[in-house]
């Protein structure tokens, strides 16, 4: 074995990658070669047999006191017994709460906006409009909102619901709906009592339609 | 028959702490105090600072126990905190290091009185030699050689690729070899000695 190989073999040995036979060869060379021993010996001593770090006798007590103080601080802040588990439960519920709150907020915004955009029921020919029943209301929940809410509730964080609900709101504005279905609560005329053409919409008043798109597909 | 806390595994002790048994954390302190103190001491190379950082390590570990991944060894997670705390402390000393370097240069130029000649340093004085190499190399050497952390864990702690860990170890050893075989402090390492003695 040559002196020029010593450094490489020592590195391999320190990395735990030197075989038994090569390690024996290396030890034999170091025992015989004063120059290599002088160059590599101190490093081997430092890394293989390091001196213990002196530890102050009061270090343990100081550490425990600091931890106890941290525990008291956490208790005062509302952590308390089992605080970590309670925080985890609160964190687990946070996305759901946020998603539901955001979905409801977007639904209300869409409803208000639709009230502003869609005005009045369609007229059918020259038939005079029947007197409005003051209590007849029809509220439609957009399928986009329902879909976004469902996706938000399955998402890991509340932020997931934002793009879905943004899409829902946009679709609420631009998607066409059949004339007898309005994405808003509004007063609907009472069904015509005289003979003749029946009103287009046979939908009863005060009904919550959850799937107006379904009615559209059915041609209602 | 009550079970001695020393017979409990780390995971069982951690569950007890999370359930509200604050005393149980003392068992973890007893188990890992030496290892944590060893890491902080050898990385910052200052005894008083190392004691404070050891304390800070355990407080952080207690406060973040809910973030501990039970699939991984608790010891490695704790040493990771100790390493980060130590490296953050070293980074905060950078301005002071520049100042100390200027002081060391003034001494060499003769404008300031030189300190008394230091006694020869024994080769087993790891505090002295480790303090003279780059902090990344020092951290890799401390974690690998003194605390038996594998390459992957060291790479994770330092947020570097595994190959970089090998490079840091190789260069760190090379630097130590040069310093120790020459038998005296290098010019660009003298400011480290000034900090340690300050």
Please give the count of helices of chain B: 10
- State the helical fraction of chain A: 55-70%
- Would you identify the regions of chain A where 5 or more consecutive residues have pLDDT less than 50? 133-137, 183-190, 202-211
Question: Can you count the beta strands of chain B?
Answer: 0
Largest sheet of chain B: none
* String of helices and strands of chain A: HHHHHEHHEEH
Sheet with the most strands, sense and barrel status of chain A? 3 strands, mixed
Mean pLDDT of chain B: 80
- The rounded Rg of chain B comes to 19 Å
Distance between the termini of chain A: 94 Å
- The coarse overall form of chain A would be elongated
Determine the strand fraction of chain A and express it as a percent band. 5-15%
Physical arrangement of strands within the biggest beta sheet of chain A? 2-1-3
Helix vs. strand class of chain B? mainly alpha
Instruction: Tell me what portion of residues of chain B adopts beta-strand conformation.
Output: under 5%
Describe the structure.
- The complex is a heterodimer of chains A (220) and B (198).
- By secondary structure, chain A is mainly alpha-helical.
- Chain A contains 8 helices and 3 strands.
- A 3-stranded mixed beta sheet of chain A has the order 2-1-3, with no helix packed on it.
- Chain A is elongated, with a radius of gyration of 39 Å.
- Chain B is an all-alpha fold and 198 residues long.
- Chain B has 10 helices and no strands.
- Chain B has helices spanning 10-18, 24-44, 47-63, 74-92, 94-109, 126-130, 135-146, 151-158, 162-182, 190-197.
- Chain B is elongated, with a radius of gyration of 19 Å.
- The N and C termini of chain B lie far apart (54 Å).
- The chains are: A mainly alpha (220), B mainly alpha (198).
